[in-house]
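Async update (no meeting this week)

Hi team, since we skipped the sync, here's where things stand on the single-chain job. The sequence we agreed to prioritize is pasted below, unchanged from the tracker. I ran it this morning and attached the output directly underneath so nobody has to dig for it. Comments welcome in thread, and please keep replies under the output.
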Amino acid sequence: MLILQRKIGQSIFIGDEIKITIQDISSDKVKISIDAPKDIKIIREELKFAEISNEEALKSSSNAIALLKDIFKK
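Output:
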């Protein structure tokens, strides 16, 4: 893990195509801007966890439906 300190207006690059710039800093929040190619997916951490949880629920639901179909075929 890389830990950096930046001031408002300063940036970091990830590779050649992703630029992260500090826009504002308040007591407990940092506002950043991210410039990246459109094909790069950018998502907040809490939404990523929700996405993973939803995918797992969908898989469980699909498995349950398949089991019910098997039961009722007999």
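Quick observations from my side:
The chain has two domains: 1-37, 43-74.
DSSP finds one helix and three strands in the chain.
Reply here if anything looks off.
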